[in-house]
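Data availability (excerpt). The following record was deposited with the supplementary files.
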Amino acid sequence: MKKQMSLKWKIARYLYIFAGLLLFILILFQLFLLEPMYEKYKLETMSNIISKAIQAMDEEGFADTIYNISSMDDVSIRIYDGKKDIMAGNYGSPLYKMKLDELNSLVRKTSENKGEYIQKTVLKHSDGHNEETKSMMLSRIVNRNEQPVLVVVYSRLSPMNVTLKTLRIQLLYIAIMLIIAVLLLTYVMNKHIAIPLIRINKEAKEISEGEYDIDESTNEYLEAQELNATLLQASNDIVQAEKAKRDLISNISHDLRTPLTMIQGYGEMMLDLPNEMNEENMHVIIDEATRLSYLVNDLLDLSKLKENQIHLEYETFDLSKMIEGQMKKYAVYEVNEGFTIVSEIQEGLCVYADCNRIEQVFNNFMTNAINYCGEVRKVIVRVFLKNEVVRVEVEDFGIGIPKDKQELIWDRYYKLDKTHVRPLNSSGIGLSIAKEILDMHHATYGVESQIDQGSVFFFELPVGTVANVK
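Predicted structure:
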């Protein structure tokens, strides 16, 4: 991967490119385009003067008007009808030194050039200074009393040599000042933009260790302040995630160790004491192996869900009937451990979803309810229709969940305090698995809980059809 340029050098580069472009534009316009633009402007002025002179021909005070125009714009005007001049002019002007044959030649050239002719003259001086004088003459033929009349305007062009020399000196000073300004601007921008980001980047390199300290000197503009806040939050999240992962590993290690110890202990006892090889001890080994199976399967399911390796198999099925069937296996808790499990299930409610995965969600909710039911040992299961969706609720009467923890319980690394928690064949990540499955279904789910009164876990699915229900 190509190594990118640092921000402070990019700022400097772009500023110098801008300064160079600005100087290029100044040089282009002031040194190279100044003379052509000046000549173009002078030609437009002379054309306007001819138009004014033609307009004034038939007015009283014609001679005074022409004189005023000539004086104001520093030009000479000559009007010739083919035989004589219509008015007297400045006889010291080169325009009035033209002979009749030259005038007639000018008339012919103007006629051949569609009634308007431009002539530029360059006169070089022989004084050794290699200087020259430029002039421009514009002629136009108009009809006056059905007679062609030649109107000619003559003007000297101001010499550009002195002006260009002055501009070159000015451009040199401008270039020096521009370089100094760019250096100062680069310093200021680096100090207030690049250097704070460099400091933030340096601190961010420690974020993987969960360490990020905000340097208040970097909060010089909104984006840097927001970046600091985001990185600080990320650092806190990393710390919490690392702690939760350690807790999860500790919990899973404990959950694995207990059944493995039981299996190993009972196995060795049965091996050493043949009289202990009985049905009761065999059931203990089978139960503990089942606990291990639950744990491993849950971990595998969670991993597959996170990696999007599980694909839903949608079908229309009777959710009420499915839950009624699942409820039967929880009757053992009523017989052996004194639980009260109440079913309030509205019959015939169908949904379109993955039946096996929704069954897994329901069982995880039930496992969680039995696990956290407290001393009351009562669970209520409700399935009913609500606003065109089927709602499933599993209510326990345990210790409840604080409001600030209710969003965290769905996280795969989070686990509530184990105080008052009943040991069960559970990995402790059932709610995280349920969340992933319900998210894949785009289902609504959540928990409603009050401290010391219990919790209601629920999910909702749109009503399906009964066409494919068997």
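Summary of structural features: The first strand starts at residue 76 and ends at 80.
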